[in-house]
Design goal:
By secondary structure, the chain is α+β, with helices and mostly antiparallel strands. The protein has helices at 13-64, 117-120, 129-134, 145-150; strands at residues 68-73, 77-80, 86-89, 92-98, 109-116, 126-127, 156-159, 165-166, 188-191, 195-201, 208-210, 214-215. It has one domain (34-218).
């Protein structure tokens, strides 16, 4: 009897080349999709943090019964906290408590907290330059003169003790509902230089609404 040895199992060279080619093709297609998805997630996370930060600011204003103000910092800026240390804010928002009638030894402006896009979100999330250049940066009537002078030249949103927002030149209703998400009509615009997210604030309720990340070519923000 002649015994035949069974050939060992495995792939031929041609089969391996086909598998490698298919994997390369899938990687070529999927990598841009994954990168685009991750970019959008970072910007969406910034939107979630922004909404949470505004809610926190309103709670602080109502709990302390004092006016607060949210100030936009487009670049890293050292903020004097009134203590023994400084905070480096930006790009993002910083929250300050305003005491219009300070007693002896009390400060008119007190730093409370900040939302730093780079530190808390990661990536290159910042305010859109075109929006920031056009955003109103004048004084807010309900803020004391010292506060308006300190934050002169910066976009800011005041918060009344009842939680209502003082949004500069706010448009009636939500601009996002009108489809105007390609320009500077929104109350705030943030970007990661690839996509843009348009944000609107409701002055009466403090609600924050924002779009999904919008590709740069679908806007006129550049």
């Amino acid at each position: 009897m002649v015994l035949r040895r069974r050939a060992p199992g495995g792939f031929t060279l041609v089969e391996l080349l086909v598998v490698i080619a298919l994997i390369s093709l899938l990687m070529t297609v999927m990598v841009p999709v994954i990168l685009r998805f991750m970019s959008g997630r970072g910007l969406a996370m910034a939107g979630n943090n922004l909404a949470g930060f505004v809610a926190y600011a309103r709670t602080e204003a109502m709990n302390t019964r004092q006016i607060h103000v949210l100030v936009a910092y487009e670049e890293k800026t050292a903020i004097d906290t009134g203590g023994i240390y400084q905070v480096e804010a930006g790009p993002g928002l910083a929250l300050f408590r305003i005491n219009p009638d300070p007693q002896e030894g009390e400060a008119v402006i007190t730093f409370v907290k900040q939302l730093n896009f780079e530190a808390q979100v990661g990536g290159d999330v910042h305010f859109a330059a075109k929006w920031l250049n056009a955003a109103p940066k004048g004084p807010i009537l309900d803020l004391p003169e010292q506060a308006n002078e300190k934050f002169e030249g910066r976009y800011k949103i005041g918060i009344r003790p009842d939680g209502r927002l003082m949004v500069p030149e706010d448009k009636p209703g939500y601009v996002l509902d009108t489809g105007k998400t390609k320009g500077i009509e929104a109350d705030m615009v943030v970007t990661d230089d690839t996509r843009f997210m348009f944000v609107d604030f409701n002055p009466a309720t403090g609600a924050v609404r924002r779009t999904s990340p919008v590709d740069a070519e679908e806007t006129d923000m550049q």
